[in-house]
Specification:
This protein is 30% helix and 23% strand. It has two domains: 240 residues, no CATH class; 140 residues, Rossmann fold (3-Layer(aba) Sandwich), CATH 3.40.50. The radius of gyration is 22 Å and the shape is globular. The chain is built from ten helices and 18 strands. Helix 4 links the parallel strand 10 and strand 11. The strands form three sheets. Strands 1, 2, 3, 6, 7, 8, 9, 10, 11, 12 and 13 form an eleven-stranded mixed β-sheet that branches. The chain has a five-stranded parallel β-sheet with strand order 15-14-16-17-18, sandwiched between helices. It has a two-stranded antiparallel ribbon with strand order 4-5. It is α/β, with parallel strands linked by helices.
């Protein structure tokens, strides 16, 4: 059985390159100042995708295709819902020599002003904001290193959907016994290590990065599997394997819990009429429990969602946990409209697809009101009509 103890133990198990707070702040300010100077006066940033530093480039998996079909969405929205076909590029692994890595995005440099860009998601980073390496401040990591930094690694949804698949595929190519060190985003190792331990990794081989410069004589790199600014899931089998490993040693005591994921304790995007929304849902599900993910360990969240037959609430990272449900009804309330210009639409779809992997019945309901940022409300009359409609659909029937 995989056992993860307290947050203190998890954090202390990670070798940190960040050193003391004063030194961390100095590193950040120094690299930010260098980035600003280079942007205005220094040599131009060279961006390359090929270099003699790349010693090997091998395919892990061939190009593939996934068809995501959501019967409940089709029954609820009718002709406005369509099965989605997603094309996946082949997955690659690179072995690279003598790489300097900067910042939480894990930007890789082959020289002081030469950025090696193998990850399409890094095109979102403005060249003017790129922290260039500072050799005399670099910390050295010997041995083969897999950088797990990149887009949004401080976000648990991004970490699960985009970065853990990269580690799983690297292991698929290198083997479970390969002495790989994992370089994590600075400031987030305390919770990320629990994910890695449940995935089967040795915490002694986890290294917390620096916001400054890290030098690695040997790097193994799997590019992000999402293209550009759009975050799309990879093949369903990758996430199914992640869920299988995460659930090792967890035996749900029941399968009939109905949970409402609260956002009252969230720092932003709070549902202002959450009490009223909860009351409407509880009218349909009298034994609905309001629960908070804040302070829960990964194991506690997996256990909770493994026992659920109904999951409802406002759109949030909590819905990534529908990956651990089986056969549940999962309804997320999303701010804005059900249109491509809604920045939350892709993530709502991703969480639906995580649910589809284990035969759940996910559905997103949209407020229908223009939304940009901040707290919001969901129209109660629209919610009541949606719940009444769901009751007429066999696809939404719960046990």
């Amino acid at each position: 059985m995989v056992q993860v103890k307290s947050k203190f133990v998890r954090a202390s198990a990670v070798f940190s390159l960040a050193s003391r707070p004063v030194e961390r702040k100095f590193d950040r300010l120094l690299h930010d100042a260098r980035a600003a100077w280079c942007a205005h006066f220094g040599p131009p940033l060279q961006i390359v995708s090929d270099t003699p530093a790349i010693l090997e480039k091998k395919a892990i998996r061939a190009a593939a295709q996934t068809v995501w079909n959501n019967p409940l969405e089709y029954a609820f929205y009718g002709s406005a819902a369509r099965p989605a076909t997603v094309e996946h590029d082949e997955a690659l692994v690179y072995r690279i020599a003598d790489i300097s890595i900067t910042g939480s995005e894990a930007l890789m440099f082959t020289g002081p002003h030469t950025l090696l860009r193998l990850d399409s998601s890094q095109t979102e980073i403005s060249p003017r904001k790129v922290r260039r390496p500072i050799d005399w401040r670099a910390r050295r990591i010997n041995g083969p290193v897999l950088p797990l930094g990149g887009r949004g690694t401080g976000n648990r949804g991004h970490f699960l959907c985009e970065h853990l698949p990269r580690l799983l595929l690297a292991r698929e190519r290198l083997g479970v016994g390969f002495p790989l060190k994992m370089l994590l985003t600075p400031g987030h190792a305390a919770w990320q290590i629990e994910y890695l331990v449940r995935l089967g990794e040795d915490p002694k081989r986890v290294v917390e990065g620096s916001r400054g410069t890290v030098f690695c004589p040997e790097v193994w790199f799997v590019p992000n599997l999402s293209k550009g600014s759009t975050v799309e899931l990879y093949e369903a089998g990758v996430y199914r394997e992640i869920a299988r490993r995460f659930k090792i040693g967890i035996a749900p005591r029941r399968k009939d819990r109905r949970i409402f994921a609260t956002r009252k304790d969230a720092p932003s995007r709070r549902l202002l009429n959450e009490d009223e929304v909860f009351a409407v849902f509880r009218g349909a599900y009298p034994d609905l429990e309001r629960v908070s993910m804040s302070g829960m360990s990964l194991q506690e969240q997996i256990t909770l969602f493994s026992e659920a037959c109904v999951v409802v609430g406002a759109h949030s990272q909590a819905f990534r946990n529908v990956l651990y449900c089986e056969g549940a009804l999962a309804i997320q309330l999303v701010p804005g409209t059900r249109t491509p210009d809604n920045e939350y639409l892709p993530w709502a779809i991703n969480y639906e697809r995580l649910g589809l992997i284990h035969s759940n019945r996910p559905l997103s309901l949209y407020s229908g009101q223009p939304y940009r940022e901040g707290d919001w409300v969901f129209p109660l009359d629209d919610l009541r009509r949606a719940i009444d409609r769901l009751r007429t659909l066999p696809e939404a029937t719960t046990g």
